[in-house]
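User: Predict the full complex structure for these chains.
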Amino acid sequence: MQVYEAPLRDMRFLIHELFAKDGFGTFPAHAEFTPDLIDAVLEEAAKLAHDVLLPLNMSGDEEGCTWENGVVRTPKGFKQAYDQFREGGWCALANDPKWGGQGLPETVNKLVEEMISSANLSFGLYPGLTHGGTTAIKAHASPDIQERFLPKMVEGTWSGTMCLTEPHCGTDLGMLRTKAVPQEDGSFKITGNKIFISAGDHDLTENIIHLVLARLPDAPKGVKGISLFVVPKFLIKEDGSIGPRNGVQCTGIEHKMGLKASATCQMSFDDATGWLVGEPHQGLAAMFTMMNTERVSVGVQGLGVGAAAYQAAVAYAKDRIQGRALTGPKRPDLAADPIIVHPDVRRMLMTMRAYTEGCRALSMWVARALDAERHSEDPEIRQRAEDMTALMTPVVKALLTDLGHEAAHLAVQTYGGHGYIREHGVEQYARDARIAMIYEGTNGVQALDLVGRKLPAHGGRYLRSFFHPVAEYIEKNKSTPGMEKMIDALEKAFGALQLATATIAQKGMADPEEAGAASSDYLRLLGLVAIAYLFARSAKIAGIKTMMGQDPDGFYAAKMVTVRFFYERILPQVAGLLTAIKAGKASMMDMPEEAF
Amino acid sequence: MQVYEAPLRDMRFLIHELFAKDGFGTFPAHAEFTPDLIDAVLEEAAKLAHDVLLPLNMSGDEEGCTWENGVVRTPKGFKQAYDQFREGGWCALANDPKWGGQGLPETVNKLVEEMISSANLSFGLYPGLTHGGTTAIKAHASPDIQERFLPKMVEGTWSGTMCLTEPHCGTDLGMLRTKAVPQEDGSFKITGNKIFISAGDHDLTENIIHLVLARLPDAPKGVKGISLFVVPKFLIKEDGSIGPRNGVQCTGIEHKMGLKASATCQMSFDDATGWLVGEPHQGLAAMFTMMNTERVSVGVQGLGVGAAAYQAAVAYAKDRIQGRALTGPKRPDLAADPIIVHPDVRRMLMTMRAYTEGCRALSMWVARALDAERHSEDPEIRQRAEDMTALMTPVVKALLTDLGHEAAHLAVQTYGGHGYIREHGVEQYARDARIAMIYEGTNGVQALDLVGRKLPAHGGRYLRSFFHPVAEYIEKNKSTPGMEKMIDALEKAFGALQLATATIAQKGMADPEEAGAASSDYLRLLGLVAIAYLFARSAKIAGIKTMMGQDPDGFYAAKMVTVRFFYERILPQVAGLLTAIKAGKASMMDMPEEAF
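Assistant: Here is the predicted structure of the two-chain assembly.
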């Protein structure tokens, strides 16, 4: 039962209350986006998600994409939905007005991305990938390339891809073999094979703009010899109209566990014409511009699927009658009580809910930092925001996708046997969510990025962008009546995080494998503390509102229960995580390879 | 890459070493099963799994079962494989020699079940379901019914099913509607609809014997009005040969997330002829005879899939080259190092390994208890064994399926993007393993069974069958040189379990919802302590062997690393579980239903 309604109430709470005063200030560039306007955008997005995208989610999964003679066909209805999406201006939502975008804050954009991911993750990838491409072109390409590609990409008439992976290299891009040979006219001829290219071919847009990593003839070995190229499916004439076909072909699509309505393409480049984006051999940096944008979005994908799965589970738990409450019948009028009366069913629902609301708050915090980084007029705030997005990008990517996937499985479990049956649509969430833990860098790679790059950077400066507000908040609120117990738990969890950080800093300095062995547990620990901090702030607001009798719909009272659940039932995991981190690498590295 | 080889070395360790002296003693009924004979059986089973069942696992998933006009066809090759399985005597392995079984110990049987589940879980369900049926018939049916059905079922010429679930009732069997009307000849006419019937119809056996829950006309309401009937697909003539078709039809099969080569059938009974098994209205007890047998087997299914996934992940991690070790190249002869050099990849592999070996040890302990319960000549041992299987059945079912599923997902994660692609076969493990957490009673229902029935039974007597040996072991070994640290950790974890038990006993007495709110975390806590205990015993044996230089293949050294990993990286979770349990029900039960 796929029943998604965008959680607008919680979204409004985050955007207008929790993050109204968060130290990043306001930005003149966003002055025109009044709360009313933002609410109107969110409401429209909610309608789009519900009316246009949701109805195609199960049918898209069932039908999948098809490939025939180099051409990919998306499932029935996707083309019409994409046209409606594009015409509604949704492709241009957060993009630069200079290129036709609407320049909305990233906070609003991430909420819309969440709704799209909840309603139809497969669909969301088609416009979503374009975003990474435009970001790289804006940041690194020449004005000529920008003018040629950006307007059509921003409006969604053309879509984008990121062509990184090759059959023998995914994480280790240093091994890539695709070649780029310079031509006299300043263009390049690109030749090579790429795999796992999302939206590599499809029938939704009139052109597809590939951003391709390749090596120049004089390229040094490894990652320092990679350059970025823009390679359109169809060449573009002088007047900007569509020209002849370029030398790029989709040679097949993957049969996957899920995300079946999103075409995952094998691409063959055969003397395809492309243009350099940025400097020669600087492709990796340009690629990370795309990747970092995408990584936060992939985290939001995990959140979105988890949020949809939560709603499905709630609907089923209220509807399905089976057995009686442990304390005696609660609905004697029915043959049995709805299963939502059972504590263990509620444990599953509350876990999903706490994950979802906690991850949503974290994604909004990072979105605020993204906005501040781009739009704050205060250079000190910009720096702090930049530090925080650098730190939190791997956390958001890995934590939100891990928990989103877990939420999807809790929804399947809530359904029992019916959850395993395809027609109910809930197992699709589990299959779809699974990829987000893998693509744009596996979650293990995110954890390594966090401990290996982000922690040591600038003498730990990135970390301070997160530790300072948490420490300050604890200090300021520890004696606030009614908050003592929560702040105490937050302080203990934060203490565990600080201890874990010190352990990694110390051991990891001497032996990078020690940092690697701790990385995944550390990312989880940091993520749980981040959510605990944002939840403490949320509960404080909610507590005041309920105390003042300003809770007509029960939203704040419910928020307090959710926060309590998180603090009592999920946050205690930090103790075990710290112990595991302190144990060190021996129990992993001492096993001889042949003994596995 | 599905590459399964049965882990015979670990299996021999468990059966000949760890459980050679475990307080249950030896059984005259098993005197003929010498270690050599047992090893020979395990080796033959390993060959069967590898040569016959494994090659059909991916093709079976791809093709699935088909249903047409009431007839189910299994995937290509399944019929030949089943014939080979049956002719090899594998259907009769653990069954009573009285009915043509080979009477092998349950320990051996469970290891064989694990191999079958690893190689081809879908296949395993066809002979597996028969076992539950024969158990119920042996325990409850009249001699006449036993003679009519058991010989053919035991040899596998006929298969069995368990027909419990109806569209509106799964967990709550009290609501079931299928009717049984007595006939003059002592038979009954059965009418009603059942769903989710594994192996309800197929083309592997000449007859299918359904064990059906239904209500007699004078039945009291609820679970006290359920009776059990045996209903064959084809009626049986006086001479025992196949007679006319009975009034039972498969009206469709489910399209599922996984386990696609196992037919999950909708069954329609329309005046089907059946015979009562056991006393009228005592069907629930008879059904639990089947269920309990099946529940341990379902746990082993989870273990089996996890074990296969572990092997796939190891093979990939050794083969896939990508990046360099954090401490510098380990294979400078290659373009990159195999990913098994990375600590975080090893964290995933070691987690899978610790789960697999720990769960295997636990399943063997319970299998030993099952053997003791049936075959010990000492009534005191029989009682203790019975207590332990009663306590541990829900734990084995839930813990082994949870961890098996988690292991399967860790294998997918080890594969990265390739793990999401169907052709590699590893995502199939994740989909197949998923159902084991649901069927034969969801894992939430297992947890409720543990805290609601098993803990309080006979004043806590069941629990003592587990607590006593653990306490005794700690006491005896706490000052054994070299074991202090491990025993200290075991003692702390056991202390947490005792505290959690006391909390539940105290709060749950006053309010059953408190027990329900704690149930899943408690089951996990108890399961982790059980594995820790068995791992401590394993490590002790391994330590002595390595010290004496009796470790030519490195098995014991590897076992010690695995145990260390479990103690350092997994067991620390008990702290968080205890905190969560102590927090109580409020954060689940305080949320108003409409606020979800």
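Chain A has a mean pLDDT of 96.
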